[in-house]
Design goal:
Number of domains of chain A: 3
Mean pLDDT of chain A: 85
Largest interface: A-B, 144 and 145 residues
Structural class of chain A: mainly alpha
Strand content of chain A: 5-15%
Largest sheet of chain A: 3 strands, mixed
Number of strands of chain A: 5
CATH topology of the largest domain in chain A: Tetracycline Repressor, domain 2
CATH architecture of the largest domain in chain A: Orthogonal Bundle
Order of helices and strands of chain A: HHHHHHHHHHHEHEEHHHEEHHHHHHH
Oligomer: homodimer
CATH superfamily of the largest domain in chain A: SLC41 divalent cation transporters, integral membrane domain
Low-confidence stretches of chain A: 1-8
Chain lengths: 480, 480
């Protein structure tokens, strides 16, 4: 909390960044001057001025919360970023490394030697160390593990063994436990002996001799209750319990539904192994929603916006390659009808409309259904209901937009049959989009895949190739 | 908390839904039997059985947390939903209405008469009432306002006056305040007199006579401190403060960065007016990320998945209309080159590839930049740096994918010039995509619009029409 001392208003964030940038710019300017000047005395003076800027910068950084320094680091190009990084006090490096994005963390870790990294890692708690471990060089990690106690080593091993996206990977070990057969008076005395409670301690966990979780004792209840009472009388006996292998997403929706601040994590025998806090949950929600959005646009991971061209290329190429394949297939569908297009060139101009609107409509269907799946709202018996509704919407859309486009095609090319084919093709492609918009997420959910990722490419592939095929096929049958 | 009593494991959620569905199905079955039977005695028996199912259902519902009932309601088709809704105890209706999605809330409110709604609204706190107000019939709201105290009316008026997406709209008034010149002993006595503390009370707010916020007193600190001390000695004098007109998004990132559970909201004079809690923040994050994703796919609002076809049509038509216009423009671009296509029909088959890959690449650029803008990472001086990086990536992509497609076009159509035009057109369209991928969010941010919404349509419009124009234009120049 003491770090927050100077952070009064949230608007300061932007101001801080601008101040750092200003100092960096002045520092750079002086550096430029120094390079151009020959006179040694002048040089000395400039160096002094430059030093002053760095001192001012360091003073400013010292006053910032670690999360705010992380924010500044992410917004600076590589050179400036490393300059700021090396001005930050070493004991805060660990916290900051935990706050920055993966891409930026890599650049920071790459700039440090093993000794520095070992020193940083030793300042972290085991659950934090587990978060950082994948990015640390192996020899650094080995050195750090050596310095841990046996208990910490066991915790680290456990934390590393949980899959990403599980409660185990998000939980921490900072819980305060009490026994059920003591009085609140004793609990209060016990707490007073601690200098401060771990962050997000809204409740104490009540356990028996075997560490089995018996209930929780909310601080708010402890404070308003009679101190003579036993813990067992005051505790909440049955609260939400999590397991380390529960999915983090389920845990997040439990936190959201039941408005939790912390929740106990128990093993298969009901013994307390850790706790999950709302701040980890919020981080997880933000991270996973951002990952989904990046994945939907075909970015493999978050990009450091100042990354070199080559890194960006590597991050993006797979998606473009997949789309190239689907576009190529659509192109070959058109190629099969080149004879028809040669005879009636209007087809070439109209076909992208049929394909495009199908894709848009299919994406609407899929977005709605993926969301409903994620919320667990679609159950077995309702899939058919849903499908018939979506086909109804598609037919209505076909009538309205297909009809409109049929008229436009007729007006443009004075060809009634062409207008009719346009309307029919639009309607059929919209029905195809509705079918696939339900079928694709259904199959993905069936086979245990995350329907949020990739469904948009799949549906667009169908509505493109399908749209071209339906429109050009109908045209070949009825017009050419 | 007592409502949670039966909720031990998060897996129960699915189970509850299935149990309710099972009971509903049995209820329906019996209803069907009754309709087919004539014998009055048999009928009576069936009615009894049916009643039993409803009793069992009601018992089950009574044990569920309001949020879990909301979940069940959202997952049921309209008829079943209303049946369950009317089985729920009236005093919980208010809480449940607050939990369900907007679309489902409308269906529930539509099924109730004014008296019921007034009774529900009177059970709510003013900040909750403000959330529900937009969905209530006017006469109901007027009736409810009549029953409020003057202070509550002022709170309601204030809560309704804040814009959606501001801290004011999310805050509540359930804070516990203490004065700075009393002892912790007195504070503890004061708290003991309350039966329970409001949810998410992790800290008390310290104010002076004029309600000016002086600091906060975390419960965790109150518990471990010497009771003889004055509040002013123990309080955290400077904590994160919010203003009612701060954006909820900024507040959410403050909660995320500083790991807050609650934060005080103060007016321009520093007087305490409310508090923001992490559960409201989590709800806001979830809601706004879901809204963005729906908006990106052109869904105007969340859809009740069991809504009638006509409602879905209304929710989706605007987007399809916009896309129809952009597709029509692209179609007219192609129309302008019909002469060239007639002479070289291969152009018709190849042109969608150029347009499609441009669109995909542009969307990658825009997704990355929109994200960086949202995180506040892109500052004035860095736009140009970013643009040149994106153009670099585009040129590299053009070289790789354009080159590959050039070779494929050459192989397919044995036409070297066609292959060269393909490569050149791909590269130019990728550069266009990079330009627009940076320019569109830049302009949107400049004019204060949310760059997350609509940028995908805009960029696709450019890369489609632009791609067709570049490819067909080059072909007309060099090939025909």
């Amino acid at each position: 909390m003491e770090e927050l001392a100077t952070r009064l208003e949230i608007e300061d964030l932007q101001e801080n960044l601008e101040a750092v940038q200003g100092l960096l710019a002045r520092h750079k300017q002086v550096e430029g001057l120094v390079a151009r000047q020959e006179s040694p005395r002048r040089e000395l003076m400039e160096q002094l001025v430059q030093k002053l800027h760095l001192v001012e910068l360091r003073t400013r950084l010292d006053k910032l919360h670690s999360a705010d320094i992380a924010y500044v680091l992410e917004a600076l190009p590589l050179n400036e970023r490393l300059l700021v990084w090396h001005l930050v006090k070493a004991e805060r490096d660990g916290e900051i490394l935990l706050e920055v994005s993966d891409a930026v963390r890599e650049t920071l870790i790459a700039s440090m030697d093993s000794d520095e990294l070992v020193a940083i890692a030793e300042t972290l708690e085991t659950d934090e160390l587990a978060d950082l471990a994948p990015d640390l060089p192996k020899e650094v990690l080995a050195d750090v593990v050596q310095s841990l106690t046996a208990e910490e080593r066991a915790q680290l091993r456990a934390a590393l063994s949980f899959e990403e996206g599980s409660v185990g990977a998000l939980m921490d070990f900072d819980m305060v436990t009490v026994r059920d057969d003591v009085t609140l008076e004793a609990v209060t005395r016990y707490l007073r002996r601690m200098e401060e409670l771990p962050d997000h301690t809204d409740q104490l966990f009540v356990i028996d001799r075997a560490r089995k979780l018996l209930g929780t004792l909310p601080l708010a209840r402890l404070i308003v209750s009679d101190l003579e009472l036993d813990v067992s009388r005051v505790m909440v006996p049955e609260a939400v319990k999590l397991h380390p292998d529960d999915s983090a997403q389920d845990a997040a929706s439990a936190f959201e539904r039941y408005d939790l601040v912390s929740a106990p994590v128990v093993d298969a025998f009901g013994a307390l192994v850790g706790r999950l806090t709302v701040n980890s949950v919020v981080d997880h929600i933000q991270e996973s929603s951002s990952e989904t959005r990046l994945a939907e646009a075909g970015l493999r991971e978050e990009e450091d916006i100042f990354a070199p061209v080559w890194n960006s290329f590597k991050n993006r190429w797979a998606w473009l390659a997949i789309n190239l394949v689907t576009a190529f297939i659509a192109s070959r569908v058109i190629g099969a009808f080149e004879g028809s297009i040669e005879k009636l060139v209007a087809l070439a101009a109209l076909m992208p409309i049929v394909a495009g609107i199908g894709g848009n409509s299919g994406n609407q269907t899929i977005t709605m259904i993926v969301r409903a799946i994620a919320l667990g709202q679609i159950q077995g018996p309702y899939w058919r209901k849903l499908l018939s509704k979506e086909i109804g919407v598609a037919l209505l859309n076909g009538l309205v937009w297909g009809g409109l486009l049929g008229v436009i095609a007729f007006v443009l090319y004075s060809n009634v049959a062409l207008g009719a084919v346009m309307t029919l093709a639009m309607t059929l492609n919209l029905v195809l989009a509705a079918l696939m918009g339900v079928a694709v997420p259904y199959m993905q959910a069936r086979f245990g895949k995350d329907p949020a990722v990739g469904s948009s490419v799949i549906i667009t592939a169908f509505t493109d190739s399908g749209g071209f095929f339906i429109f050009l096929g109908l045209a070949t049958l009825f017009l050419v």
